[in-house]
Amino acid sequence: MIFNGQPMSKLSSAAKAELRNQKLGFIYQFHHLLPDFTALENVAMPLLIGKKKPAEINSRALEMLKAVGLEHRANHRPSELSGGERQRVAIARALVNNPRLVLADEPTGNLDARNADSIFQLLGELNRLQGTAFLVVTHDLQLAKRMSRQLEMRDGRLTALIRTEPDGGGVMAMPLSLLIGLRFSRGRRRGGMVSLISVISTIGIALGVAVLIVGLSAMNGFERELNNRILAVVPHGEIEAVDQPWTNWQEALDNVQKVPGIAAAAPYINFTGLVESGANLRAIQVKGVNPQQEQRLSALPSFVQDDAWSNFKAGEQQIIIGKGVACGCAESEAGGLGVDYDPKFESRA
User: Fold this and answer.
1) Domain boundary among 124, 148, 172
2) Which of 67, 152, 248, 333 has its CA 20 to 30 A from that of 117?
3) What is the pTM of this model?
């Protein structure tokens, strides 16, 4: 994969992290805002991680909230915003570093028709005003038809949709490799006829693209990624209450455990915070788990050093922080974790 003229495979981990922070923006189907921070603080998070100056962080975050029409909601937390407003904050966060490309995965999937149309119009305006490219993945065909360029994944193959009428009323599907070859061949016509060189070029490009895709798939094999990067895989689902607090969760838990195919179910807690590493701050999210069920269902406990997992007991608010894993710091660097807690609970580490 090549981005901005650079092969991604040749970049170091630090360079990839910088590229994700500075050159790419991300919008998801779910807003993924940090619930304990205001809209302004959520938008400012990429700038904070990018070590921008405080004055620049505040002014740029406010500027982006204004661009999405939410400057008057800057000091509101996600729980105080509507679904459409939360997604607008997520868009502002994705664009706050003025990225060259924004990757959007079903950006309107959780919205009603009115809010979905509003979000799409906003993306179009930002594309025209800021020159930001948007790569949008969607199942909404009406939304896709309004894009300037359309690609379709059909039977595992990427297919280009080509307009067949001047007004865009009709489209036809064509494999992407063949489309590239045809466009190339149009520049090699002689007297209105396609030359032999053109035919050979078209076939060669089509086959070349196919071979390139197969080669890249082999080089970046899924098996290698499993061996090198993934510690454990546990299929799971989560249920969250819309109205807090959720007092009758025990009844729901009992019903979930009765569903065929469910191996286990347990309540969990989560919180967000900032990890301090020297002069840097990083946003993290921590979830509580049931140690006994995690040991039974997952291989993750085997990666915990010094058998620390065996000392965990439910209800004692204990936390394991990996050395240099969560905050990206060296083992010699000091790291602090600040957590707001209810005084009636005993704090332990």
Assistant:
1) 148
2) 152
3) 0.44
Is 56 inside a domain boundary? yes
Residue found under tokens 């405080």: 54
**How far apart are the C-alpha atoms of 140 and 106, rounded to whole Å?**
8
Using CA atoms of 38, 78, 23, 51 in order, give the dihedral in degrees to the nearest 10.
20
Prior bond of 7 cis (ω within 30°): no
Domain membership flag for residue 243: no
* Element at 13 (helix H, strand E): helix 13-22
Token pair in block for residue 151: 């690609």
User: How many domains does the chain contain in total?
Assistant: 2
Same domain, residue pair 13 and 144: yes
Structural domain that includes position 269: 249-337
Q: Residue 133 falls within a domain, yes or no?
A: yes
Q: Who's near 168: CB < 8 A, 6+ residues apart?
A: 145
- With respect to residue 26, please indicate whether it lies within any of the assigned structural domains: yes
179/202 Cα distance (integer angstroms): 9
Residue pair 130/137 in contact by the 8 Å Cβ criterion: no
Angle at 328 between CA 43 and CA 319, to 5 degrees: 90
Quickly count: other Cβ atoms within 10 Å of residue 19's Cβ: 17
Which pLDDT tens digit goes with each residue over 141-177?
Answer: 777 777 777 777 777 776 666 443 434 444 444 454 4
Q: CA 224 from chain center: how many Å?
A: 22
CATH code where residue 58 lies: 3.40.50.300
Task: Say which residues have a Cβ less than 8 Å from residue 7's Cβ, sequence separation at least 6.
Answer: 1
45 against 313, higher pLDDT:
45
Integer Cα distance of 175 and 179 in angstroms:
6
